[in-house]
Write a structure and sequence with these properties.
Blueprint (H helix, E strand, L loop, with lengths): L2 H11 L8 H32 L3 H9 L3 H16 L1 H8 L5 H12 L6 H9 L2 H6 L2 H35 L1
């Protein structure tokens, strides 16, 4: 997100509150969510970069940001997920998805076997539009279905390989 856009969003939400109409307040809430997502993207990028220069990035993040170790670890995971699925990382930077969406991605990536992780990350990247239209919980369910479909694809491929191998042995 461009700095001018950030400044415009800040001006639109400040000083939201009493006396504003429902429409103005919901618009301000939407703009504030975009600002929060951008801040979450910056934190994720810092966490990812800190991994390259710190022995314990979680500890450094926790101390610098006044966070728990668990929350700092979540930022590191979010940064890794944003790097592995750059289309979603870019959507986070634009305020189109939330940090919670990236947490869902990080969790889903951790549930995939390492040899299939890159393929799954590609599949997840193809779901960026769906992420933008869904809540994190809805997106979690979509990723679970995608993981199941991918496992089924691999199971069918494995079965075909075993069948062809068995046919060769029986010849």
């Amino acid at each position: 997100m461009e700095v001018d856009t950030l400044i415009e969003l800040v001006r639109k939400v400040h000083p939201a509150g009493d006396g504003w109409t429902r429409s103005e307040l919901t618009s301000a809430a939407r703009d504030a969510a975009r600002l929060r997502a951008w801040c979450e993207a910056v934190q994720a990028r810092i966490a990812r970069s800190l991994e390259a220069v710190s022995v314990c990035p979680e500890r450094d993040l926790a101390k610098a940001s006044n966070l728990s170790s668990r929350s700092a670890g979540r930022l590191v995971d979010r940064g890794r997920a944003a790097a592995e699925v750059p289309t979603l990382g870019a959507a986070l930077e634009q305020g189109a998805v939330s940090g919670a969406h990236m947490d869902v991605v990080a969790s889903a990536l951790d549930q995939v076997d390492p040899e299939h992780r890159a393929e799954f990350a590609d599949r997840v990247g193809g779901l960026t539009d769906e992420a933008q239209r869904s809540t994190p919980e809805q997106f979690r369910k979509l990723l679970a279905a995608e993981r199941t479909a991918m496992a089924g694809d691999h199971g069918e491929a494995q079965l075909e390989l075993l069948t062809s191998h068995a046919e060769e042995v029986l010849k």
